[in-house]
Amino acid sequence: MNYLLLTGFSFIVGTVVGLTGIGGASLITPMLIFVFNVPAAIAVGSDIVAATMMKVVAGISHWRQETVDLQVVKWLAFGSVPGALLGVTILRWILSLGWSLDSFLLPAIGSMILFVTIAGLIQLSIATFAPKLSLPSFPTFDLETIDGKIKTVIIGFILGCMVGLTSVSSGSLFALVLMTFFKLDSRKLVGTDIIQAAILLSFTSLGHLGLGTVDWHIVIPIWIGSVPGVLLGSKLCQLAPQRALRYLIFAILLTVSWKLIHSA
């Protein structure tokens, strides 16, 4: 493997993430599979470990700025952490049966990326072409009630399982959930999403380390490239045309998801 090239591509992906806010796993995992011919299971495990450090570093910053809703983080984590560990357990079970992880993971990752991309496209299109469109409002989860806590745990569990299986959507789908069901303001939305992702990915990383699906020779170049890329992208994001960039990335993700689904 050309590790210098991996670092360079990771820098580009990190810059895109910093510019657009679109999740790195949706780009890095397919990049590892198609560009560097990494087996799907190793790509998922290595990507999760690589993403964990970035989320933890960003999470510490938001914690210090007090831009985190700890109640939401707590109840989401009660569901997402067991869900993620179940996802890793399913992978272990597939391995124990002697089945090909690639034949399962490639369409699973592709389907997740497709789902996240379509959700993002719908949200972006409404904001672009019909900003005054009045859509039916979803109920807000009240974490002071048992019902609100149960619903939060269930959603966290489902999304956590998806992350454990595919590495995709630790931020994107959770951000949609936070916007839809908790009505957080923009500052707390970002901080809460990052902190919950850091907790979720930390436990998921332990699961993948135990599963043996982490290659440190892949993780370290991703760290070296993506972290400065994210910092650069964050600096440039105010200068770049956000909507045009997002539409371009979504178009790329649609192509990637289609290729993943039909690669098995």
From TrEMBL:
The keyword Phosphoprotein does not apply. InterPro entries: TM_pro_TauE-like, TSUP/Inactive_protease-like. It is a multi-pass membrane protein. One of its GO terms (cellular component) is plasma membrane. Keywords: Cell membrane, Membrane, Transmembrane, Transmembrane helix. The chain crosses the membrane at residues 6-28, 40-63, 75-95, 104-130, 150-182, 218-237, 244-261. The keyword Transmembrane helix applies. Its main location: membrane. It holds the Pfam family TauE. It is found in: Cell membrane; Membrane. Belongs to the 4-toluene sulfonate uptake permease (TSUP) (TC 2.A.102) family. This is Probable membrane transporter protein.
